[in-house]
Amino acid sequence: MTSPTNLTLAASLHERVHRHLFPGDGLEAAAILLCSRTPGPRIRLLAQDAVLVPHAACTQRHADYLVWPGMAIEDAIDRAEVNDLSLVLIHSHPGGLFGFSQHDDQSDHLTMPGLFQALGPLHGTAVMTPDGAILARLYQADLTQIPIDVVSVPGDDLKWWWADGQFAKRPMAFTSHARDEMARLTACVIGVSGTGSVVAEQIARLGFGQVILIDFDKLEERNLNRILNSTLQGAKSEQAKVEAFAEAVVRYRGDGVAIPLNASISSREAVLLASQADVIFSCVDTLDARHIADLIAASFLIPLFDVGVSIPTRKAGESVAIADVCGRIDYVQPGGATLQDRGVYDPVSLRAEYLRRAAPNAHLEEIQAGYLKGVAEQAPAVISLNMRAASACVIEFIARAYPFRHSSNAEHARTEFSLAANDEDFTEEGSFKKLPNPNLGRGAMEPLLGLPSLRAPKAKDKQ
């Protein structure tokens, strides 16, 4: 399956552009999207910002016709030159036409050559209808068109507008109609172990067109009791977890769905592959991996679902007892509060984790026992807990792509459950203090994610 070409706007930017394009007077208005790009092979444009063309600066504004001032485009060109950005010129269709008019075609052929003279390749135009739907197209330097198959806006809800008009009415959750749309999307699962294998099993069977699987680890006999699609034979041959899972997907979905990568998410190869996804599920057990997932989601404007479980213990006389059985699911939307903003990790905890790996003798007092904190258990029987958390994680995606809740999805930025207390708590997006994010919409700019360790190798290094 070929991944669709895509234009993505964070919900906050989409809302700002929508307000400007529809000021309430029923006349066309215009803006210019400043877009970074993802690394190939998939074409994805990521809207970083917008130049809003002042209404009064337009020499003509009608219900079906607009004349822009050249200065607005020159301003956008100046801003785009700095980081080699693509421009998408967008205007409103107050009458609701989800298509390009003959006047739009004529205008593009007059405007596009000037963009290619001033900037590099790949620029485009778009129209927005009153309901916020966007239709976009790209041009190459010879004015050959590249259709944008889908425009996505990941916010409290996940929205896609398809150029072919399919799914104009949002599918109902849990239906074959929703499955048909998911068949056009690519999901990435980072960490295909205890929780991750259960997440991956669900999304593969839900019908995602492609499922990217990223994990550096190999199967061992001690984790056969909690990793779906693992086998004794695979453990004995030290098969990569992602390869074992991909083989299983082939048996019930066929070839070309599972895309396994046996590598650390901290590697350049893994970051490049994850950048191609429409949604990311982070099912890792280290803070460093969550940090990278956070950076990928922000840099490439990909919605992120992060899941974790924990079984804290307490002293009970001379023995140890279960204090709680917990799970956490965070939904991170582009431009929203990141996992770092939410306190999932911070620079201090990242450094401490690094020291435990690099100098374990310096942290002998810290017991790292995996699932059961304080108990050295090599093969914990936690598949039921993992399934509970993994199911909640995938349901969170479904609720945002195909809303069914009685309350707003904004109230469910974080879900935490305690099985010991039989309790479930929700935290709304606005409760987290959001810091400026310099990586937002960074795209393919080097070094990837702003990390020197992920810089593209020089030509001599490739030999």
UniProtKB/TrEMBL annotation:
It comes from the Bacteria. InterPro entries: JAB_dom_prok, ThiF/MoeB/HesA, ThiF_NAD_FAD-bd, Ubiquitin-activating_enz. One of its GO terms (biological process) is protein modification by small protein conjugation. One of its GO terms (molecular function) is metal ion binding. Residues 177-310 form the THIF-type NAD/FAD binding fold domain. SUPFAM superfamilies: Activating enzymes of the ubiquitin-like proteins. Pfam families: Prok-JAB (PF14464), ThiF (PF00899). Keywords: Hydrolase, Metal-binding, Metalloprotease, Nucleotidyltransferase, Protease, Transferase, Zinc. Residues 427-463 are annotated as: Disordered. Residues 11-112 form the JAB domain. One of its GO terms (cellular component) is cytoplasm. The keyword Protease applies. PANTHER family: ADENYLYLTRANSFERASE AND SULFURTRANSFERASE MOCS3, UBIQUITIN-ACTIVATING ENZYME E1. This is ThiF family adenylyltransferase.
